[in-house]
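Renewal narrative, Specific Aim 1. Our central claim is that a sequence can be written position by position from structural information alone. The example that follows is taken directly from our test logs and has not been curated for this report. It begins with the structure tokens describing the chain, in the order in which they were read.
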């Protein structure tokens, strides 16, 4: 069974280099665990979509909850899925445009087509409001 989590967290003191290191670690470790997904960071908050085998995603979420680099981890959505939305992304960083006006258009081109409409809406709201 595959699981998908969407969560947000706060990391106001994280430097760009630290975010890059998190992404590099994810890209290195996630394939062996069967985890795929995407990550948005607006300079203060993370929004991350994780998907993979239920046990692996649950274990990763426990690690994320315990990670002192961010706080206020809140799961927005958790569901079983029949197939992956991001099958080719060990962890893709989805960039958020500086201009709020162009964020929606930019994200529409970046987000995977098979994304559940409710999950897409939560991601779009995060990007536009932050």
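The sequence written for that structure reads:
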């Amino acid at each position: 069974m595959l699981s998908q989590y969407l969560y947000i967290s706060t990391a106001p003191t994280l430097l760009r280099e630290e975010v890059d290191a998190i992404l590099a670690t994810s890209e290195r470790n996630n394939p062996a665990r069967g985890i795929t997904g995407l990550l948005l960071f607006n300079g203060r908050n993370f929004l991350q979509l994780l998907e993979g085998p239920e046990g692996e995603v649950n274990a990763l979420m426990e690690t994320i909850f315990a990670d002192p680099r961010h706080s206020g981890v809140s799961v927005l959505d958790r569901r079983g899925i029949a197939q992956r939305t991001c099958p080719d992304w060990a962890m893709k960083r989805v960039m958020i445009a500086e201009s709020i006006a162009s964020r929606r258009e930019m994200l529409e081109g970046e987000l995977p087509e098979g994304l559940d409409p409710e999950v897409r809406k939560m991601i779009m709201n995060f990007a536009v409001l932050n």
